[in-house]
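2024-03-11 09:14:02 INFO queue: dequeued item S-adenosyl-L-methionine-dependent methyltransferase, len=285
2024-03-11 09:14:02 INFO validating residues
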Amino acid sequence: MDERVIMQTGRPSETAAAMAHIRAKYSKLHPEILTDPLAERILCAPVLDETVLDRGLATDVAERRGLYVLARSRFADDRITAAIAKGVDQVVILGAGLDTTAYRGTHDARFFEVDHPDTQHWKRQLLTEASIPIPDNLTFVPIDFEQATLAGELAKAGLDRTRPAVYIALGVTPYLSRPALDDVLGYITDHDGGEAVLDYFYPPDEATADQLQMRAESTARLGEPWLSCFIADEFHDILRSYGCHIEDHSASDLVATYGARRNGRATVAGPHVVHLRKRPDLLQN
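2024-03-11 09:14:37 INFO prediction written
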């Protein structure tokens, strides 16, 4: 089996479905982090208390993961809001899954949702079933990251590279092969005036807890294995090679920022969220 094939053809991403249930469940439990009234509605089904990604996880570990999922979405929302306030009028959401950002409130920007064709077809069916209208300022961009270039597909969709944009890629990098990841990073960082929010995961054997190992194994069983994981120094070096200014936030710090603490401290370990902006003076020779 070619390791570059990370989804089963003809089926939507099962991890996207699981993450949608996790967002719906925890946004109700922790509205102080993220308020998402569409998270449950878009599912068109009861919110699962346990998803395929939770099997084998201790309740405490699953809760930590849920808090992180909310915190990274809140962080991305805040960066989008700040960018639009500065005049950015294009938002690109990579690996959008059942993300509801473009459907919540009124945004003075054009949104591009980029995802696998099968997952996008499934999402559009759910939107219709849930009677959630597709905003006029939203464009769907179907792509198989392993078979097509981001530049080619977004150009066809009408993204204006002469204008700034903010890119969001949450839960995306682990599922990309290194060539596909390089294509995505190269495209994002070559956009003058662009910025991005993305997360990355430590290799399972480098994690400070067993949760990443279990998560990697569970996604592999779904036909969506992790292909690209990095320790912080390694990923920072990659980003700096593209001339990026980096702000790195650990999962624990991000969760604590938005007020969700357990026993007086945040207790999430493993993933990191990065906010990056292009800095030509940082380009490595």
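2024-03-11 09:14:37 INFO annotate: Residues 1-8, 263-268, 280-285 have pLDDT under 50 and may be disordered.
2024-03-11 09:14:38 INFO item closed
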